[in-house]
Design a protein that fits this description.
Layout lengths: L2 E9 L4 H11 L4 E9 L2 E8 L2 H10 L3 E12 L5 H11 L4 E6 L7 E7 L2 H10 L3 E2 L2 H5 L4
Antiparallel strand pairs: 1-3, 1-4, 2-3, 4-6, 4-7, 5-6
Length: about 140
């Protein structure tokens, strides 16, 4: 139940961010979720897109450093403490969380993209505690 996250390294230069998203739009690739981190001269864009393999291909063809990573997309109830409970379940399950960010689902509930070091253990802990994860097909089909 993993999904592919697209990772793109970009120079922190005027117009580069717009260029990345323009390439995706021109190729009918929907950006479902995204987060951007910067480290002085470079930035890292992480995103869930409708067609991760095509996105990597078209960005690589334009000389962007793009890669794919397995992540989990976890469905959360829209209520107080849901995120804390997710983190607790993973932590007490012996799973290290590398990072997480929100994912739009088009529903009234929240969802999180989570990168963990022990994916199988994470899935087991989540399922044992009643959390649902998106399949790749479900995640890539989200439109808003």
């Amino acid at each position: 139940m993993y999904i592919k996250q697209l990772n793109v390294f970009v120079e922190n230069r005027h117009g580069r961010l717009e260029e990345v998203y323009s390439i995706l739009a021109k190729n009918d690739i929907n950006v479902i979720s995204t987060t951007i981190s910067d480290v002085s001269e470079y930035g890292l864009i992480r995103m869930v897109v409708s067609d991760p393999h095509l996105a990597k291909e078209v960005l690589s063809a334009e000389d962007y450093s793009a890669s794919l990573t397995d992540v989990l997309a976890v469905k959360l109830p829209n209520k107080v403490g849901s995120l804390q409970r997710l983190i607790q379940v993973l932590t007490f399950g012996g799973v290290t969380i590398s990072y997480l960010y929100t994912m739009a689902t088009g529903e009234a509930s929240a969802s999180m993209v989570v990168k963990v070091s022990e994916s199988d253990r994470a899935l087991e802990a989540l399922e044992e505690n009643g959390f649902e994860v998106f399949s790749a097909e479900e995640a890539y089909a989200i439109t808003a």
